[in-house]
Amino acid sequence: MSLTIYRKAHFNAAHRLYRKDWSDEKNDEVFGKCNNPNYHGHNYQLIVGITGEIDKETGYLIDIKILKQIIKEEVEDALDHKNLNLDVPEFKELNPTMENIAVVIWNKLRKKIDPKYDISVKLFETPRNFATYTG
Amino acid sequence: MSLTIYRKAHFNAAHRLYRKDWSDEKNDEVFGKCNNPNYHGHNYQLIVGITGEIDKETGYLIDIKILKQIIKEEVEDALDHKNLNLDVPEFKELNPTMENIAVVIWNKLRKKIDPKYDISVKLFETPRNFATYTG
Amino acid sequence: MSLTIYRKAHFNAAHRLYRKDWSDEKNDEVFGKCNNPNYHGHNYQLIVGITGEIDKETGYLIDIKILKQIIKEEVEDALDHKNLNLDVPEFKELNPTMENIAVVIWNKLRKKIDPKYDISVKLFETPRNFATYTG
Amino acid sequence: MSLTIYRKAHFNAAHRLYRKDWSDEKNDEVFGKCNNPNYHGHNYQLIVGITGEIDKETGYLIDIKILKQIIKEEVEDALDHKNLNLDVPEFKELNPTMENIAVVIWNKLRKKIDPKYDISVKLFETPRNFATYTG
Amino acid sequence: MSLTIYRKAHFNAAHRLYRKDWSDEKNDEVFGKCNNPNYHGHNYQLIVGITGEIDKETGYLIDIKILKQIIKEEVEDALDHKNLNLDVPEFKELNPTMENIAVVIWNKLRKKIDPKYDISVKLFETPRNFATYTG
Amino acid sequence: MSLTIYRKAHFNAAHRLYRKDWSDEKNDEVFGKCNNPNYHGHNYQLIVGITGEIDKETGYLIDIKILKQIIKEEVEDALDHKNLNLDVPEFKELNPTMENIAVVIWNKLRKKIDPKYDISVKLFETPRNFATYTG
């Protein structure tokens, strides 16, 4: 038996893909226009999945109001209307690719959600490019 | 090798989340505005997945016209334009949360679909809240 | 010159289409399964358009935070998780068709928004059925 | 008779809403979190409409391949993966609100498209906030 | 006062853009890969708008069940799973561009819908290319 | 640990479902209106998933620009604006059902993508009918 519930959220942020220890030429070669030193940005869309068992009493797997609040505090308040490179501690030394953002979000949620549940994160950087991470 | 085909369907229904054996205060505390005694409602969207092997002769995993008809009879005719609490026998004693609705739909489909196929159900209660159940 | 800004919102509600002064037979004939006496429901999606001129100082036509707040107070707080027939005064004697709901929402917004702006309301009852009203 | 054809496009950009001649306090009061000095960003989605008459010979109102190319050169090449405030000349002294971006795009397209056609621009800053401009 | 209701529909069809009286070279030059002599195809999505006044008795502008049936008979039965060039009489001598298809659909609906209503047709050839026609 | 990145693409094609070795009656019985001898068509939407590990140096699982180019060459150039039955060698003797198209695309991609990555293919024939194949 496998039951998962999902909650969508979103945040709008600026970022730049590059490595400080690489030359401009190498950053341009690898990251192309994503390496604009003045940043660009995205409407990130996030889908968090929680897998577990139904609570027979309530019929809920997890109270989605509580999940919504955890996502707000851990993800939206931390990332929305932010410059990921400059404003978010996790990306001070980590390139904010969609892959790394998905992993960072998963790690933040993992600390706040009961270990009896499995967690999945789907992160859309654009409607055509997205990533999933399941820990 | 894993091949799955999917078919979308939808139904519009009213429901109320509560337990008859709880006080109004406890129902309000747990289910919040979903406990409106006059009901509220949703456009539920359903995606049924069928996993199996391709029939070499037809190139079909399953004839989607037949799957569409089973979904119509088992789900749409039973739930569309209904009050889940009052009109649907499965929810007479079962809280119609999206989790329980997903399980009920899966059980109804399981009885009608050849056991050689695996079944998955994804149920959207809103565009932001949804559930999957795979039995 | 015509500039319009739009804001999306949504609410989930139950309703029933019928006239108290008609027989059950006539209500069934005209409103079909929408006349379920136990109600059914929808995820209504709303798009409010505001037409006017750009404020040269801010670059805003209207502050969308203020518009969002007006929509929350006038529409979402009034209609979300409600039974339109039983819980909403405007529909005590008015059939809650999507046409009438669109007109009711427009009238509520018109009272709260500066008359220098034109207002449009687009209301989705389902992804396939919707209405627009421009006063 | 009114016939319009539409073409969708998109660009991802960073921006900040503020006025250089205002204090930080006033910018925060008016523009809120959109005034992050480190910028934030969006996946802007654009829909360009062209109104005119069908060319009886081809059955086209306008060759959409040509329209696509004009949008690429005038909008996507100019705005995609850019910081609107720092990289785009039109916003050096103009606040890059969605209203102003829509007007700037319309003006750029107007210069490149035969005056026998009317032009409309619909610009989504997010899926919930968007603007239309028709000149 | 302006009230419009909309109904979505869809049909899947093959077509080829070309003129019989042009050389292959000219057809290729003007219509590019849309001139494949073996045809290609689309999932066309249609939105029909009907503008008029609310019937005070029912609260309907028009009974959407009747509109749905007219669209089925006039559009879906005529165009779905068809080759527009070979199977549909209206395109025997008319190039099935999205502009011409929109006009043909509008003309077919106009004959079946009470002249007290205005009609609009929005036709998506792809999610990025679409047309509107209002007669 | 499981990380997957996804890239969307699309192609528009004509096809016909039938077996040359069956009578017209049997083809009609099994494939219904999909057996139109003049073909019909679809806007196919494709989502390719690549599963693997993050490259610590770049923060990429795979460079999505390279994946996009492989999809263009192997899928879009081969299938877009084509008649699947007549123009595409893989379907000369294979019925172009969505199941078979998904398998053909997966096989084409598998040859071009480093075996250290797992591949999944999700293919939408319409917004309501789709298939996934994971090899």
Descriptive report:
- Six copies of one chain form a homohexamer.
- Chain A has 135 residues and is an alpha+beta fold.
- The first copy, chain A, has a single domain (2-133), classed as Tetrahydropterin Synthase, Chain A.
- Chain A contains four helices and five strands; from the N terminus they run βαβαβααββ.
- In chain A, strands 3-1-2-4-5 form a five-stranded mixed sheet.
- The model of chain A has no long low-confidence stretch (mean pLDDT 97).
- The interface between A and D is medium-sized, with 22 and 22 residues.
Structural topology:
The structure is a homohexamer of 135-residue chains.
Chain A: E1 3-15, H1 24-31, E2 40-52, H2 64-79, E3 82-83, H3 84-87, H4 98-112, E4 118-124, E5 129-133
Helix pairs in contact in A: 2-4
Largest interface: A-D, 22 and 22 residues
Give me the secondary-structure category of chain A: alpha+beta
Rounded mean pLDDT score of chain A: 97
So what's the overall shape of chain A?
elongated
The first-level CATH class of chain A is given as Alpha Beta
